[in-house]
Fold this sequence. Notes:
Elements: H1 4-20, H2 32-44, H3 57-68, H4 72-91, H5 94-106, E1 111-114, E2 130-134, E3 137-148, E4 155-161, E5 169-175, E6 181-186, E7 194-205, E8 209-210, H6 216-252, E9 254-255, E10 258-259, H7 264-292, H8 299-324, H9 334-341, H10 352-364
Amino acid sequence: MISPLAGELQALQGSVNRLFxxxxxTEENGDLGFCRDxxxxxxxxxxxxxxxxSPSVRNLCFLRYAIAQKTALGDxxxxxxxxxxxxxxxxxxxEQKQEYLIRVAEGTLICGFAITEPEAGSDAGALRVRAExxxxxxxxxxxKTLISNAGLADFYTxxxxxxxxxxxxxxxxxxxxxxxxxxxxxxLLAVHPIGQLELENCFVPESHRLGSEGDGLKIAYxxxxxxxxxxxxxxxxxxxxxxQEAVQYAKRRFQFGKSLAEFQxxxxxxxxxxxxxxxxxxxxxxxxxxxxxxxxxxxxxxxLAKSFATEAAQQIIDQSLQIHGGIGLLKGSITExxxxxxxxxxxxxxxxxxxxxxxxxxxxxxx
Length: 367
């Protein structure tokens, strides 16, 4: 008998399969028009209702795992609809939720999450973009960098300093059409709509602040708490594809009179890849299940899941490429694409080293 949860996941897998069977949707295409159309397609397929409002973390993780096996760009666009809108689910007013979340789930409104700055990456408390009080709202000044969906998003959930100290950061909804906001594209190793935001006398009405002044870091960390485990799920989706490619190639590639699959060295690689995949899946599922079961925070669980899964995925994809040999390096091959796609996941939403510090701090804290 299939459990209700297993049946739901099968339905989600079917939705992903049907959508990405359409020609062209798995292409590496950073064109903003293509990206906008892909988000709209995901909305029409019903996938985006699982990111807004208030997603089931298990469904979110499973969908990222399934989509990332087919297209890293599609996974990114799917995830950003959740990451950019979750602060509104978490701290938005009824009016803000009504204005934004329905259209995010429909795929007709694209969002971004703007926290990183040139001098503030892992150290979110060091933000320098300022939000100065003025009549009816705030004037924002400064620079955000490495912002996914920059130039593509219709609005950004943006974090800025309203006073000094770690409690002096607030969150705002900033419309992309704001005349005080300018975007500059940046390029990454893999196809990824990303860029820099320049804010100069960028007026944001008080009605576009999320929560109270000083709630910014609480909102940001609450959002990352949920989405970090889903980054691990996306990484394992990419690794799963690399693993399957390696298994199939090892069976059909013959050297020295026998298939690669008959060599013990290759067998050991396959076994180790399978072990890492399964261990990562269990860590991700543990974090997601605890959150869906009502846990207020899953900081430790998401740090364990994200750091282990992304590092394991990098190793699995590297080993898959090694099994493929020179053919795996050919531009446009699946292994070559995955090798580029996986690298950023070990950095964004918590670099591995930062997450290890969080894990260690949990176990070394005073009783």
